[in-house]
Amino acid sequence: MHALASRLRQLPPSCGPVRLIGVDGHAGSGKSTFAGQLAAALGGVPVLHLDDIATHEELFAWTDRLLREVIEPLGRDETARYRPYDWLARRFGPTRTLPPAPVILIEGVGAGRRALRPYLAWLLWMELPHEEAWTRGRARDGEEQSAFWAGWVEAELRHFTEDPSRPFADLLVRQEYEGYEVLSGPNGTPEPDQEITHSNGPSAVC
């Protein structure tokens, strides 16, 4: 993980002074856990969770709000201000601030959508088939969320059909029994000294 963190720090800024790193993948694929560990390896950098941006009414129609409240201010080297959504109360909570930082992670389904890619230094994709990811997600959320998951699956399928992220990923991340395997993605052009390998070579585990 620390080797990956070191590589991310070396990337050129992509959104004002910020190296914005997207972590995308299907719901239940382990994005939040991985992003948390990567943020810690980076010295505790901020993580923006797209669950705080999406709402029941806007599962994926949040692009304009994210650009206006977060991406554009960061691009101007200003502090972003947004109101995270409370999924239980079904309303927005108090304003939260996100100052510019050398690296900021943005994780969630849709972090690699086409409207955000111009602002990303790199896009990471959690490499887990959607059926397996959804099974994990349903088990995590319990029976009381079964109705929500039925609607979510349809919305996610439609989103990735219209606006796929994986073809543009710089890295693919696979969760292993211990740690993660990091592979070059469809859009990746690793340098010779990068600790990133294709699947037919030795694994780089962090």
Please provide a written account of the structure.
With 206 residues, the chain is an alpha/beta fold. A hairpin with a 4-residue loop joins strand 4 and strand 5.
Entry summary:
The chain is α/β, with parallel strands linked by helices and 206 residues long. The chain has helices at residues 2-9, 31-41, 63-75, 130-141, 146-162; strands spanning 19-24, 47-49, 80-82, 85-86, 91-92, 96-98, 103-107, 122-126, 171-175, 180-184. Helices cover 30% and strands 19% of the residues.
**Helical stretch count?**
5
What assembly state would you assign to the polypeptide chains in this entry? Answer: single chain
Helix content: 25-40%
What fraction of the residues are assigned to beta strands by DSSP? 15-25%
What is the strand and helix layout of this fold?
Layout: H1 2-9, E1 19-24, H2 31-41, E2 47-49, H3 63-75, E3 80-82, E4 85-86, E5 91-92, E6 96-98, E7 103-107, E8 122-126, H4 130-141, H5 146-162, E9 171-175, E10 180-184
Parallel strand pairs: 1-7, 1-8, 2-7, 8-9
Antiparallel strand pairs: 3-6, 4-5, 9-10
Keywords:
206 residues, alpha/beta, six-stranded mixed sheet, two-stranded antiparallel ribbon, 30% helix, globular, disordered C terminus
